[in-house]
Amino acid sequence: MDSVRSDRDGTRSRIPVALKILIAGGFGAGKTTMVGSVSEIRPLQTEEVLTGVDGADDTSGVEGKRTTTVTMDFGRITITEDLQLYLFGTPGQDRFWFLWDELSQGALGAVVLADTRRLADCFPSIDYFEQRGTPFVVAVNCFDSERRFGGKAVAKALDLDPDVPVVEFDAREPLAARNVLIELVEYVARRQLLAAGAR
Amino acid sequence: MPADPRAPHDWGGQGGQSPRDWGDRDTVPLRTDPLRAPHDWMDQDAGPVVRPYAVTQGRVAPSGGEFDLLAFVVATVPDAPPAPSLQPEHHALVGAAWEPTSVVELASKLDLSIGVVRVLLGDLRSAGLISLYEPPAASQPHDVDVLKAVVNGLRAL
């Protein structure tokens, strides 16, 4: 990884290693909240403007519209001077799937947020990461007054592989959100070690 | 629809162009309702008044090839020299990238879309005013020691 570092004049910081984690889930599942609660920088939003993307959208009725603005949340956690974690809240609308391909390129893994009131909303995210082989954990966002479902019940309802971690948390709590990230990174490390052992 | 000199979209130029005369390539039909107050159409759906790619003169791809959202940008000079080819946004990017800064963070800091920032960074790279450092290849598995460092770092937060 030394290739990405710069030993320049020493007066400026070196190029850090940046790892990417995606925060996915249906609309209103708490993606923006989670990115905001763990990010050390004010959660930033950035926009991707799309021009004339063919076949990406059903444009019937809006033939004149050629540009669409997509907003993505992102946040950052500095682990060490040389190691940074970037969190990307994926665009929620289904019609922006194609943007996910770039976001998930080289991603460490993903957190799929599930809202038990609308569990089906996270199916597309789970399908996507399963198909791409991107490791993910499912985090059930527990709003205070909501009836809680056990992780096992959610795992069963989502028909997950038995090794996929399912955790309950409150996206507004920085420590809880941090623990979800720890769960994910540990899961990725376990998978990596298993894969290395199989070789 | 016949032109009405008092229509809200007549911006008052002497024989001036209405936005719809700017060419048919990239226009969004404006909803016309002469009964509403002028500029009432400028709601959220109208989008930005200046189209984002105006700053790139319509270019959508950076010169010299694409780069990652998490590529790090480092300015090679503290300030870009004045040059006719450089716009204020170019100067702002150079100024913001003295310390290594990721492409996505530059976009957010300068409130520009990622596509636009990429084109501008391509210009700056061609001019030798910035260096771009790509993240390690996507196919490369993440090093377990790095993952352990991440877990330890997160625990210490």
TrEMBL record, chain A:
It comes from the Bacteria. It holds the Pfam family ATP_bind_1. Keywords: ATP-binding, GTP-binding, Hydrolase, Nucleotide-binding. One of its GO terms (molecular function) is ATP binding. CDD domains: Ras_like_GTPase. Signal peptide: none annotated. Belongs to the GPN-loop GTPase family. This is ATP-binding protein.
UniProtKB/TrEMBL annotation, chain B:
This is DUF742 domain-containing protein. It comes from Actinoplanes auranticolor. InterPro entries: DUF742. Residues 21-42 have a biased composition (Basic and acidic residues). Signal peptide: none annotated. Residues 1-43 are annotated as: Disordered. It holds the Pfam family DUF742. It comes from the Bacteria.
